[in-house]
Fold these 3 entries.
Entry 1:
Amino acid sequence: MPLIKESNFHPPILCKNYHLQTIYPALFRSVNGLNYERERLELPDGDFLDIDWERKGSKQLVVVCHGLEGDSSSQYVRGIMKKFTSNSWDGLALNFRGCSGEINRLLKAYHSGETEDLHYVIQYAIKTGNYNHIVLVGFSLGGNVVLKYLGENSGNLLKEIKAGVAVSVPCDLEGCGLEMERKENWMYLNRFLVSLKKKLKEKSHLIKGQIDMERAMSAKTFMVFDDAATAPIHGFSSGLDYYEKSNSLQFLHQISIPTLLLTAEDDSFLGKSSYPFEIAQKSDHFYFESPKYGGHVGFYQRTPHGYSYAEQRAWEFISKHGPNI
C-alpha cells in the first residue's frame, strides 16, 4: 500500500502561499550549469521533434517531459536534468511538437494523452545510446503523458524503463479544466490560452476548414478551446471525448513499475479527482505523496544546493526504487 502519508516538504514560512509557490520559481529561478546539445528527430509522419541532451557517458538515462506550453528551457526541466546529470546520469529533455521554439510542420501538435512521440524518443535513445536503465519524469501535462504511457503499456513496457516520477499532474482533465475556470486561476488560464491561440494562428494555412477557427480563437476556457481545436485536430469527437480518453487517472491502477506522483494539496489547478489516494492504497507500484504546500510545479525550498523539493524527491525515489543505481 504505497500511499505516502507524511511528506518531508517544509517550505519557508513566507513561501507557503500557493500562488507564490507557483509563480516565484517560474519567474525568478535560474538553473545554471547545463549545456544542452540539441538533436532534431525526423518522424515517420513527416514532422519533427527537437530533443535536448546532457550526456555524461552513462548507460542510465532520465527522460523529462515538460508541461503545457513549456519546453526544455523551463526551470523545472533544467532543475531535474541538473539533479540527475550531476549524479553522472545522461539526460534527455523532450520538447513536444511545436514547443522547441520552431513551429512544427503538421497541424497535429501535442496534447495531454499523446504518448506515441514519447515512445518513439525512448526507442531512439535505447537504439543510439544503448541505455539499459531509463526513468521517466514528467511535469503537469507532461506528467499526465508519463503516467498514461506507463499505465497503458504496463503489459509490454520496454524492459529498459525502470521507474517513473510525475509532478503536479491533472490526472482528471475534465475536472482540472473546470478548476481553471475559477477566478483565482484567471491569470494562468489566460496565459495558456494566449500561447495556444498564437500557435494555432501560425498554422492557419494548414487548417482548411478542419476546425471552427473563430470559436477556438474566441475561447475563454480550456473546455471551449479543446472542443473547438484540440479534439478535432487530434481525432477526437469532442472535447469531452478527448478528456475521457487522455486522462491518466484510468491507467494508474495498471502501472507495473515503481512510480511516484507528487502533488501539493494547495495546487489550485487541480480538482479533487486528481488526488488518487485510493488507487495508491491498493497498488503495489503506484506511490502518491501530497504535501500540504507546493502550489503547481512549485515546491520551492531554501537550501544550499538550490534544488526544489520535487527534484530532490524524484532523485530519492529513483535511488530507492530503481535497481542498479
Entry 2:
Amino acid sequence: MQIKELGELALIKKLAEQFATSHPRVIKGIGDDASVTIQDESQYLLCTTDTLVEDIHFSLKHTPFYNLGRKAVSISLSDIAAMGGTPTFLLVSIILPASVTIDFVNLLYRGIKEKAEEFDVKLIGGNTSSSPDKIIISTTMLGEVFKDRVILREGASVGDNIYVTGRLGDSALGMKIWKEKGDNIITDPFLKDAVMAHIDPCPRVREGIKIAEKKLATAMIDISDGLISDLRHIAEQSAVGAKVWVEKVPVSTGLKRWILDHPQDIMLALNGGEDYELLFTASDKDAPKLETVSRELDIAITHIGEIAPKINGVNVLNEKGEALNLAIEGFEHFKQRQE
C-alpha cells in the first residue's frame, strides 16, 4: 500500500495507536492540537510542532520572506490557542538549499522575531540543515495552561452550540487570487485583505485564553484544514454528530463580493483551510457570556450550528434545511486534492 492510499488522517490514527502511552505525566498525546503533559502541581505543559514546505504550504513567488517567518510562528501559536494556553517558548528548524541568500534568512528571522515578540514568546533553539532544492521551516511551540482550564477536541455534548471566531474563507480566497492573478497587482482593498489573511494570519491566542479562563468551551480546535474537516475531528473525538447552517458561517465583505460572481466559492469558507480561527462548542447557557467576551475582545464570535447525536453524522444545511453535498471537506496531505 502506498501512503496516498492511506492518507494523512489514517496515518496519524495508526501512529497514535502505535505510540499510545499510560505514562502518568501524559494527559493527551497524539491526536489534538498540542500534547498535554504535567508540568507542576497547577499547570500543564503544551507542546506542538508544525512544518511549512515550499510548494506545498507556500510559494516564494507569492510569499514575502518576512511574512513567511511570521506565518511559521503564527500557525504554532494557533495550536496553543486552541488548547486555551499561553505560549512561552519557540524552537525553529530550517532546511535550506545552498543557493538561498543571506537576505532571505535575515528577513525570515525578522518575521519570526517580531511575531514571537508580539506574544512574548522567546526563541530558545532549533536546528539548521541543507536541502537539495526546497525550503522547509519547522516550528516547535511550548506553552502552559492551568490544569482546570485546558480545552481538548473531546468534550462536546449533544445540544452544545458550535461557534467560530472571526471570519472564514479569506485565506483560501487569498491563495486562489494569487494563483489566478500571478504577478498582477491587486488593487481591490478587500481582495488585498484576503491575500494578507493567507500570508500573515492572526492566531487567536488572547481569545483562546479568555475562553479557557471563563471555562466557556466544552471542546475546541483551530481551523487549519477547513471548517468541516476540523469540526469532524471534534465530532469523532467527542463521539457526536454536528449540523452547521451555511448561511450562519461568517465571511468577510471581500468574500461576500467575490461570491456574487463565483457562488460556488462559498465552499472556501467551509473547506478552504488556513483560517487559524478557533472552532469550539459551548453550552447554550453560556451564550450570553460569549457575547460579552466578543464585545470585550472586539472580535466576532458566531453561533453557526449545534452538536447532534453521533448517528446524524456531520452535515452542512442550506436555508431549506437540506444537507449540502461536500465532495471535499478540507485539506489532507498525501491524498490528491481536487480543485
Entry 3:
Amino acid sequence: MDVITNIRQKAKTNLKTIVLPEYNDPRVQEARRIIEREGIAKILFLSPDKMDPAEKERFSLQYYEMRKSKGLGLDEARKIFEDPLYYTAMLAREGKIDGFVAGASHTTPDMARAAIHCLGVEERLGLACSCFIMTIPDFANGEEGAFIFADCGIVPDPNPRQLSCIAVLAAELGKKVLGIPPRVAFLSYSSKGSAKGGSVDKIREAMQLLRNMSVDFLFDGELQVDAAIIPEVAKIKKADAVLGGHANVLIFPNLEAGNIGYKLVERMSKGRALGPLLLGLNKPCSDLSRGCSAEDVVDCVAVTAVRAQ
C-alpha cells in the first residue's frame, strides 16, 4: 500500500471533523466531494452565513483580549473575524472541531498567523514550525520514496535550538502519520567536516542539543543531501556510521533552502508535496500551497484527521 493510500485508510478508521473555511474555492469544493465519497473525514464548509453572530462576537472579544498587548484594537479584531479562517481556528481552539485545512486562497503567513495566534504553541518545545510529506515516484530511497522535509514554511533562519526542535516535531509526525522509524539528517553544504562556516557550526550545536534531549530516533549531521539519502555516496564521504544514506526526515538549515528544495523535488520528479503541515501547535491543522490541487486538499485533510486521532 502506498503512503497516500495508507494515510487515507488510517483516517477512515476513526472519523474526525475537519473544517474547510475556503468554501468558495473550486478545488476545495471538489475535495469535499472526494472526502465525503471516500469517507475520509467529517467535513464542514464554513461560509460567512454559517458563522453564528453571537459566537463571532465572543471570539472577537476573546481574540482582542489575547492580542491587545500587541496593539490590536477591538474594531480590528471584529474585522479579522469576518474571515471564516479565524472563526474556524477558534472553533478548533475550543475543541468544537478536530482540525482544519486552509491555504488554497490564503498565503502561508496569513494561515500561520491565524493558527499560531488562535491555537497557541505547545509549551513542551515552545516552537511552531512546519513540514511537508514528500512522495517521489520510482525512487526507492528514504521510506520507499517517502520523506519528511522541514522546515519549509515558517521559521526563516532557525537557531540551533529551533533546529533541534524542528527535528523532534518532524520525527514525531513521521511516527504518527507515516508509521515510520524516523532517521533524521541535518542538511548542509558540508558532510562531516568537509567544509567550514557559520551554518555548519549551527548544525553541530543543534546536534548536541538533540543528544541532550535523549530522543528515541536516529539522527546525524552535518550532511550534504546526497550523503544523507544515497548509501553509496554516504560510504564514499564517510558519512555512513549512523544513517548510512538512509535518511527519511530531512532538516533544512533555513527556510530558503527548505522552500526551494521541496519545490524542486515536487516539480522535477513529479512528486507530491503534502503541506505545509503546521507543527508544534495545540491542535492539528494544515496549510496548503496556493498552487494546490483538489487531491492535495484531500490528502492534507487525511493527514490532519490522522493527527487528531
